Amino acid sequence: MASFTLSAFLCVAVLSSITLGAKPDFPSAPCPKGWVHNNKRCYLYFPEKRSWIDAEMHCVSFGGNLASERTADEHSFLKKLHMPDGDKLAFWIGLSDVHKKGTWIWSDGTKMDFKKWNSGEPKSSGGNEDCVLSNSDGTDWQVSDCAKSYPYICSLRWR
Fold this sequence. Notes:
Helix content: 10-25%
Number of helices: 3
Keywords: Signal
Mean pLDDT: 81
Protein name: C-type lectin domain-containing protein
Signal peptide: 1-21
Shape: globular
Number of strands: 8
Order of helices and strands: HEEHEHEEEEE
Radius of gyration: 15 Å
Distance between the termini: 43 Å
Largest sheet: 4 strands, antiparallel
Low-confidence stretches: 8-28
Domain C-type lectin: 38-155
Structural class: alpha+beta
Pfam families: Lectin_C
């Protein structure tokens, strides 16, 4: 029986979601019911906590990925979307370096032109801190262990 490391599994999951590019067949409404439209994308906040890969795979099941923060406006938008319950916890976004330490890519294949790292980030502790959290409490991105559980936001490319 084959055995895979977490990094190998995450890499396969991320690359398969990039290459599949599946987009479900939704009605022509701005977004599927319950999703919020912003800048040609639809977003949905999930308050239940999951590991990064479980959150990513949940997003992939909708035909999307964990949200990318491509601009300062998108960064602010996602923080506001996360805040309705007053939850100040950090939340997963789709940025990781699971495939190669120090090479950060978005799980949806978006180019990383925008960066919003907290001071001292990204850490290179050499441990399992390969996935990125966006913080809603006024701070920015930080790396974390991918196996930890946090809320998350899914994103779908839209018209």
